């Protein structure tokens, strides 16, 4: 809801969204291949939430914000 109010996707991680989508999709397809609901059911919501996050990235702006929200470690 905070993303909808602020109309900013700064708090979402695009790389985490992509990784969640591919991981959930691969496990769900594996569960379909084995016809195993114990694998399919827990991973299906990950696909849907990732798709919702992709829509939020598309709707509210750039994938990469202007500046990172973290400090780089100085070595």
UniProtKB/TrEMBL annotation:
Gene3D superfamilies: 1.20.1280.290. Its main location: membrane. One of its GO terms (cellular component) is Golgi membrane. The chain crosses the membrane at residues 47-65. Keywords: Cell membrane, Golgi apparatus, Membrane, Repeat, Sugar transport, Transmembrane, Transmembrane helix, Transport. Pfam families: MtN3_slv. The keyword Transmembrane applies. It is found in: Cell membrane; Golgi apparatus membrane. It is a multi-pass membrane protein. Belongs to the SWEET sugar transporter family. This is Sugar transporter SWEET1. It comes from Cirrhinus mrigala (Mrigala).
């Amino acid at each position: 809801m905070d993303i909808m109010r602020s109309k900013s996707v700064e708090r979402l991680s695009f790389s985490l969204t992509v990784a969640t989508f591919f991981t959930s999709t691969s496990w769900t397809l594996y569960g379909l291949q084995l016809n195993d609901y114990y694998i399919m059911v827990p991973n299906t919501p990950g696909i849907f939430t990732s798709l919702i996050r992709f829509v939020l990235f598309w709707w509210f702006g750039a994938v990469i914000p202007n500046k990172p929200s973290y400090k780089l470690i100085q070595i």
